Amino acid sequence: MKRTFIERFKNMDTLLAIVILLVVSLFIVQSLEFNYPVNVFPLTLEGLIALFALIILLRPRKINRTSEEENQGTPNWLKIAGMFFGSVIYLVIMPLVGFYITSFIFISFTAWIIGKNYSLKALGISSAVSLMIMFFIFAIFSLFVQVPTPSGILL
Fold this sequence. Notes:
Layout: H1 5-8, H2 12-31, H3 40-58, H4 67-72, H5 77-97, H6 99-114, H7 120-144
Helix pairs in contact: 2-3, 2-5, 5-6, 6-7
Transmembrane segments: 12-32, 38-57, 122-145
Pfam families: TctB
Keywords: Membrane, Transmembrane, Transmembrane helix
């Protein structure tokens, strides 16, 4: 029996890994225009994201699934399209606004959209985690490595 395109991607992890690799490849293409030392920051992050996506893509899958598990693995195309187009918008706006502010907003809303709880509390938690991530990135690249991040009008 021949499977349809969507049936091949019932496993959400596989589809997510493929979308992440596509988005990261867009980031890598943009980063190739930067000279050293400016290119160290984006290429490091992009390399790590691509590595994690490959690990997700290549890890063994569970063969026997119940019907309830299969329904949970059905891709939500609206979330996937939102993630892809949100990433493209992030790439366009980042040089204008700046890395830290755009990344904070992007990470906050992406984590909130991917989750199952759309309450204000969940958005607050996503924003708090995003803020911690941004402080971590700032500490590593600005204070320790002293590599500049993309700047814009605001920061």
